[in-house]
Amino acid sequence: MSLSNACCNTPPTDAQWKERGVLKTLDNGRQVYRTGPKDAKRGIVAFYDIFAWHPTTYQFYDRLAEKGFQVSVLHVFTAGGYPPEKLGNRDELMAWIGNYDYTKADLYGFAKAAVEDLRKDGVKTFAVMGQCWGVLMSSKVASEANSPFCAWGGAHPSFVNGEAVKDAKIPAIFLPSKDESEKDMADAIDVLNSKHMAIKSVQHRFNNMHHGWTGGRGDWSDPEQKKEGELAIDLLADYFGKAAAAEEAKL
Dihedral (C-alpha) 25, 214, 171, 47: value to the nearest 10 degrees? Predict the structure, then answer.
């Protein structure tokens, strides 16, 4: 699986945004960023990118929540995101990511705890998504038996290809930038759609955007990045809404 050069080398921006949600401690002691209307019945559990909390990341999830979702962003990197000054060394970055191994960090257990927290606030259906490495984490969640989620995906995916999604049991949406492999994304979509799920898996390429523009590497004071970020939000909201409607029809 591939990690783009842009992921290894592009630093975070100095963007500005005042977050609209709150950091909440779950019953298991782990923390999430909760945002969105409290009467929304649809939920999204999310993994941020390698820079953890960043103004554009908050803005992205705050604006996605405005589309009618209660959103819960998992605080995985409790010691802080990847240090920008260490960018440029692929091996070092890979080793750092490895410290947050999916199984070792029990990220599925974390995601399920976030679901239960959302259920307490009336949420009925759930999608799981991520940015960068978080899309791969979402694929692993989507591959679990009896997962509570009805769809998955995310923006500027790292490490995602046909092999990575072969065990996924729910449909996905991918929003790759110009820095992600077209072949990897096409292979992943083909594998998912060969399974004939409730709705088709899709991708929308942002070939005018760089890796990370919806998260730590994004600066939405740039009108073009903001416009494309808002399009990404619309696409995710529409797709997760369709998946939720298909799930609601079975409830």
Answer: -20
- CATH assignment of 5-248? 3.40.50.1820
- Per domain, the residue ranges of the chain are 5-248
Cα–Cα distances in angstroms (integers) from residue 146 to residues 33, 46, 169, 181, in the given order? 25, 19, 9, 31
Residue with tokens 């009925």: 124
Determine contact, residues 65/32, Cβ cutoff 8 Å.
no
pLDDT 10s digits, 106-127: 999 999 999 999 999 999 999 9
Residue 130 in tokens: 């991520």
Q: Going by C-beta distance under 8 Å and a sequence separation of 6 or more, which residues neighbour residue 99?
A: none
* Helices and strands in the chain, H and E counts: 7, 8
Residue 56: phi and psi, rounded to 5, are -70, -30
Question: pLDDT for 153-180, tens place per residue?
Answer: 999 999 999 999 999 999 999 999 999 9
